[in-house]
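S1.2 Input.
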Amino acid sequence: MTDKNNEELPEGGVIHEGGNADSYETGGWRKLRPVLDNEKCTNCLICWVMCPDSAIIVEDGKMVGFDMEHCKGCGICDTECPPKIKAIKMVSEEEAD
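S1.3 Output.
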């Protein structure tokens, strides 16, 4: 298919290349921020598995923090942290600063 300038147009409704949110900062509209209590964390990594934004930073098999450029503040990490541990707490952006 060509347009009036004889330029090739991509076929409509077809995704030719997968998108990747890693290229974009998506955490700017967050209202709540996760805060980690390193003393309580057992490195079970349930938060890492469950995070829909891949915003949990893991190094050498240990949870070391959050990628705040991509964290949207959904609170899944807090919800999924085992109740007896509760190493992650959601706080307001103002409280975190």
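S1.4 Remarks. The domain at 26-96 is CATH 3.30.70.20 (Alpha-Beta Plaits).
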